[in-house]
Amino acid sequence: MGPQERKKRVNGEVTKKTLYPGGTWEPGEAQYGHTEAKSYTIRMKDNTSLTARVSFPTELSTGERARENFPVVIEFTSYVSPDDPSLPIEPVTYLTEHGYISVTVLMRGAGGSEGEVNLFGPQDCADGADLVHWASRELEGSDGRVAFIGCSYPAGLALAAAAGSSDPALKAIIPTYNGLEGVFRQCWATNGHFSIAFMAFTAYAPEALGNSKAAKNFFEKMRNNILSGEDRAYAGDFWKERLPMEMAEKIVNSGVAVLLQTGFKDLMDRVIVRNYIALQNAYAGRPLWAPMEKGQAVSPKYQLLMGNWAHGEALDLGIFLQWLDTWVKGIDTGLQNVKTPAHLWEGGDDRWFNADCYPPVKESTQFYLRGDGKLGRISEESSGSGQLTYVYPHEKNGLLSFRTEEFEKDVRLAGAVSATIFAASSGKNLVLLPALYDVSSSGEKELISQGVVVGSLHRPDRDKSWTDEKGIMTWPWLSLEKDEYLTPGEVYRMDIPLAPRQWKILKGHRLELEITAKSPVEVLPENGMPQFLSSAPGILTKPQKETIEGQTFTIYFGASFPSSVNLPIAAENTAPYVETARLPTAWVEPRVIDPKAALPIPIQWG
């Protein structure tokens, strides 16, 4: 039953169906060899020098450099070579072997590159534009066509380059596990509550960047500024010029094709979903921040691959090559005909489906918190309350829990998840961490989605938030620009975004909503190193410490205060499931293909 054994008629000819999306394209054997990476110095317009390494295709028969010209694929990176921290990591020779010049370029302030670290700011955008010009017009052997690839930090630089360049030479980018609005909105902080990843990244980033003076100074200043509660702890000018969502319109107007990739266990999954929406809305001439409308025009140039993956997992060079062949070389790979560009994993039953519109479901169904510890579709007539303090969940007053009855049939969730919680504080601030679990009949729990709100930063930006026809705020987008402290004892409505999800709740399972004020000890130990690649909240700034620690938070529910979790329940036939495969071109660090590490990827992209 392997997909490679089946046949498909294409243009009147019968061909074997391949493992790759569309079933008609595959990478094939290497067409070229590759030269040993050559070091370059590239001057930006302001005369700052960046260090680079380049690998060119070679003839398989002679080993000599191939005479024809080739497109250029750039990994604009922060990461240095383990052998020489003045140079960037090695070029991707797999791409060289398939007819591309592979280039890695160290950003400003990293390794041997001059200048100051910019963290995806205007200077990184300008440098990206300069690199497009250099690669298309100055690099020997270039045929004038350029693309960017990258995972994590390099993905942010690829987006910066696409937003900074209007040069038609730039054809495509593949930014994986990073996105517009990503660093401040989820990786380093979620709704103003800073994460474990923020602490770990600012501590270890200088080493990853070659221990340059510029990197050490930048990340030390950043860490101190945020922990002190200064300007970079809020959504002010500093963050508004670092990969804002509005850049989606510039990227679409430039005609650059974008393949987004993330996972439900990633540091930036929720913002990358919004990136897909913004790109498709820009293509359709609609507001960037709005939910997509069913039936709106979509383009296969903007696709999303979203699996059950952690940061950096399921990267596949065959998929990368297929995207580049499609949009850089103009080869008919089938990807240019995709009509459902969002490829989504569904938890609960571990299957995939395709969609064009996101969210697939716009309306929310409310499940109300009840005084008997239950979660139900009907709010209790009487009111109740529960108390939390800022302690670990396993400690006294560390956890409130509410469960549904067992579901009588399978139920699919598909779209934005939120919570509406009415709460008060004994002081002038609070913090709440709602988390939604799937509980099996045997009592096993699996996390579906989670969120966070800081009381002084709970005000939503209504122009960017989503509200359904019933007035439920389905995806609150918080403004985060300044603290607006609470009046002690006064009850406030907190609209809290949880991560969007596709999930099947199986018959006989329950949903459980847990509300805590602090991440669990296994995520944030009192002593020792926390989990590195986690965007779980756990770091309070100085003003947050002063206003949150030692306070009691009261959660209200029932007739007067209808606290709820708001779920996108889909029709049973929302979308058919699609086939997956483990591809032989899985890419893992240190920059090698390892088929044994392959994770299932959908191969029917609609």
Write structural notes for this entry:
The structure is a single chain. This protein has eleven helices and 37 strands. With 606 residues, the chain is of the alpha+beta class. It has an eleven-stranded mixed sheet, sandwiched between helices. Strands 17, 18, 19, 21, 27, 30, 31 and 32 form an eight-stranded antiparallel sheet that branches. Strand 15 (342-346) and strand 16 (351-355) form a beta hairpin. The radius of gyration is 25 Å and the shape is globular. The model is unreliable at 1-14 (pLDDT under 50).
Q: Please tell me what the overall shape is.
A: globular
Side-by-side strand order of the widest sheet:
4-5-8-7-9-10-13-14-15-16-33
Please give the share of residues in helix.
Answer: 10-25%
Beta fraction of the residues? 25-35%
Keywords:
606 residues; alpha+beta; 8-stranded antiparallel sheet; 18% helix; 32% strand
Question: Topology of this structure?
Answer:
Blueprint: E1 7-10, E2 13-16, E3 33-34, E4 38-43, E5 49-55, E6 57-58, E7 70-77, H1 93-96, E8 101-106, H2 122-137, E9 142-151, H3 153-164, E10 170-176, H4 182-187, E11 189-190, E12 193-195, H5 196-208, H6 213-227, H7 237-240, H8 247-253, E13 257-265, H9 269-284, E14 302-310, H10 317-327, E15 342-346, E16 351-355, E17 365-369, E18 375-376, E19 383-389, E20 400-403, E21 411-425, E22 431-439, E23 445-450, E24 453-454, E25 466-467, E26 473-475, E27 492-505, E28 510-516, E29 537-539, H11 542-548, E30 552-558, E31 564-567, E32 569-570, E33 577-578, E34 580-581, E35 587-588, E36 592-593, E37 601-602
Parallel strand pairs: 7-8, 7-9, 9-10, 10-13, 13-14, 14-15
Antiparallel strand pairs: 1-2, 3-6, 4-5, 5-8, 11-12, 12-29, 15-16, 16-33, 17-18, 17-31, 19-30, 20-28, 21-27, 21-30, 21-31, 21-32, 22-23, 22-24, 22-28, 25-26, 34-37, 35-36
